[in-house]
Amino acid sequence: MIAQGVVFFAFMESFFMVGTIHLCTREEFPDFRSRWHVLTSGLRFPMITHEWHAAALQALLPEDTPYIVMVLGPFGELRGVAPLVRLNKSNNLGFLSSIAIPEPAGMLADSPASLQSLLAGVRDLGFPLELERIPIELWNPEVMQDALGVMSLKSIREEGGSPWVALGTSWEEFEQGITSKRRGDLNRAYRQANRSGGIAVEFLRAGEHEPSELLRRFIQVESMSWKSSEASTIRDKEHIHAFFDHLVNHYPGIVFGFLSIGGKLAAGQISVIHSQSLWVLKIAFDEAFRKCSPGILLMHEMLRYAHTERIQSFEFLGYEENWIKIWTKMSRRYYTLSLYPYSQRGLTRLGKDVVANLKTRYGRCSLSESGERG
């Protein structure tokens, strides 16, 4: 009787779906570019665009499998898309857009009904999901509850946000909004840099220069940073290099920032201008210039550049860090959705996560107890 009920539910669900579920292959992905643009129109995130996902596909390793779930209307129109990936033959699916940079991501749909159909298609893949950093604009808890709550277990948690600052005032007014202590810190950094030979700043749009050469310059300064000792630079990871090489050559609005001290390259930044916002994707500085705070100076100059370009918001991305509080204390909040379908994969993953959480809690309790006894 239970089995008959599940079959009946699945039949009724498919009957009321607003379109056909389609699993897009890598080969046909380029064909959906213009239809994808219709879905992302008016949304402010560069990470959900077709161009970003095209770059992410370049970063996949041979053992990675993309699952780009789509809802197609009766005339082939794209009504919804969930760009997911299964990394390294794991049992989990995550956002494809986060493969190189774990930043805001989400599913796209033209209506709540399309989103419900899309979520049902994703759920029916039978994989556990770990969908991180979903912004509030792409978060629809009511529809998610309806689509996912019947045949799966889920966990929803709010994540730490990424800093941002609203622009729109004059540069002079913006600088006056920085606390006197922070302005003093900035002034000392400028004085130190000037004593070391003076600074020069460049802001170069990838579309007006050779993008691969600009990327090479950024990689050059990144290789002189602390990231090099941890083997976490673009140069150290072939798939990350493939992502950025494709992105800077195909994504409109990529801007490189470079800061030199005494004629030597000291800091670099990769950003993208999208939907009247500037998004900071990568930053790096040469450790030899640490006393001059070149990364902070370049970020301040990039904010000045954003003002001259009449940018409306400056998105630092990443997570809240003390040094970014020079300019702002505001942050964007995100959600993480963990989904465990009633399948062997889903329940196996749930068991592993429960054990991991218990170990974490037990470890914290042990540390707390030992601290009290000491």
Describe the structure.
This protein is α+β, with helices and mostly antiparallel strands and 374 residues long. It folds into 2 domains: 2-160 and 333-373, Aminopeptidase (3-Layer(aba) Sandwich), CATH 3.40.630; 168-311, Aminopeptidase (3-Layer(aba) Sandwich), CATH 3.40.630. Helix content is 39%, strand content 26%. It is built from 12 helices and 13 strands. Strands 6-13-7-12-11-10-9-8 form an 8-stranded mixed beta sheet, with helices on both faces. Strands 1, 2, 3, 4 and 5 form a 5-stranded antiparallel beta sheet that branches. Helix 3 (50-58) runs antiparallel to helix 10 (238-250) and helix 4 crosses helix 5. 37% of the residues are buried.
Secondary-structure topology with pairs:
Blueprint: H1 2-15, E1 20-24, H2 33-40, H3 50-58, E2 65-72, E3 78-86, E4 94-95, E5 108-109, H4 112-123, E6 129-135, H5 141-148, E7 152-166, H6 171-176, H7 180-195, E8 199-205, H8 211-222, H9 226-229, H10 238-250, E9 254-261, E10 264-274, E11 277-285, H11 294-308, E12 313-315, E13 331-341, H12 344-373
Parallel strand pairs: 11-12
Antiparallel strand pairs: 1-2, 2-3, 3-4, 3-5, 6-13, 7-12, 7-13, 8-9, 9-10, 10-11
Helix pairs in contact: 3-10, 4-5
